[in-house]
Each structure stands twice: as C-alpha cells, then as structure tokens.
Amino acid sequence: MMAAVFAQVVLILIIITNKEEVREEVDEIFLSKIELYGGQNSSDNATAPFNLIQQNLDCCGVSNGTVDWAKSSDVATTWITNHTWDVPDSCCVDETVDCGVGGVNVTNGTLHQQGCKEKLYDLVDDNLPLLGGVTGGLIGLQLFGACGACLLRRAVEQHFSY
User: Fold this and answer.
1) For residues 114 and 131, what is the distance between their CA atoms, to the nearest angstrom?
2) Which residues lie closer than 8 Å to 26 by C-beta, 6 or more apart?
C-alpha cells in the first residue's frame, strides 16, 4: 500500500518537473492520431477519440485549426486522401452530417478555428489546482487507510497475544 502511495507521489513530481517533456509526448500522440484519422479500422484507435476531443473541447485539428485538415499540411495524411478540402463534422460549431465538407478555408464562424492541443493545455492549466487538491486528498486518504490498518493490526495482535 505504501509503495503505491509512494509511486503516485513520484509520478506527480515527474509530471510537474517535466512539464515540457509531457507536452511533447502529448504532441506526438495528437499527431499520430490525426495522421490515422478516417482510415479503415481506425474508428476505435483514432477517429472516434479525435471526434470526441474536437466535440468536447470545441476545437479542430491539432495546432492550426481547420488548416491541419488541408492537403498542404501533411498532418492528416489518411483523411486528405479522400477529403481534400473537407474537415470532420466534429469541427463544426453546430454539428450536422456533412457540415465540414469544403471547410478547410472556412472562417465564417461555422467551424471551430482553434487547435485542440492548446485547448487541452488550457483545460489542464485551468484545472491544475483542482486536480492537485483531489490528488492530494486521495493520497492523504490512502495514507490514513494505511495507518488505520497498521493500528488495527497492532490492536488485534495485542488482544490475541495473551
């Protein structure tokens, strides 16, 4: 039990002290997912999660909004083979079927223009105090439980040692 608590504390410290490395890893994950978006058998691995992110964070693409879906970006390589000037419908402010068709150069407010990477970073940064408090509370609860278990064991040993 104490090893698990120690591991959690170490993990938190690693994340805090290596924030840039964590962001670089997130960048790589985003780019690998958008590259596979829309391909065969990719709905479980790339398409569905990316749609969920774009819908919930009100964003589009990774860094450059709708431009990430353009043929010239070389980011969404699988998607652009069949959708040269389209963006996924999950980029639309009001999502409907085919609302993203021809949307790569649209700037009229019908599509989300901000990339998802920055939106995710903003979400984490905005909620970091809450996340830290919840994590600290859970670690404290685990330590309390471990101490309680030790005290209970000691009491049981004393009671049955006579």
Assistant:
1) 24
2) 117, 120
Name the β-bridge partners of 111.
Answer: 92
Say which DSSP state 64 is in.
Answer: S
**What does the alpha-carbon distance between residue 88 and residue 101 come to, in Å, rounded to a whole number?**
8
Q: Which residues contact 80 (CB under 8 A, 6 or more apart)?
A: 69, 70, 71, 73
Q: Residue 156: how many CB atoms within 10 A of its CB?
A: 10
pTM over 0.70, yes/no: yes
Paired tokens of 33: 């997912």
Residue 92, C-beta contacts closer than 8 angstroms, at least 6 positions apart = 99, 100, 103, 110, 111, 112
At residue 61, the pLDDT reads: 92
The Cα 140–Cα 16 span in angstroms is 19
- Residue numbers of the chain with a pLDDT score lower than 50: none
Are the beta carbons of 123 and 57 closer than 8 angstroms? yes
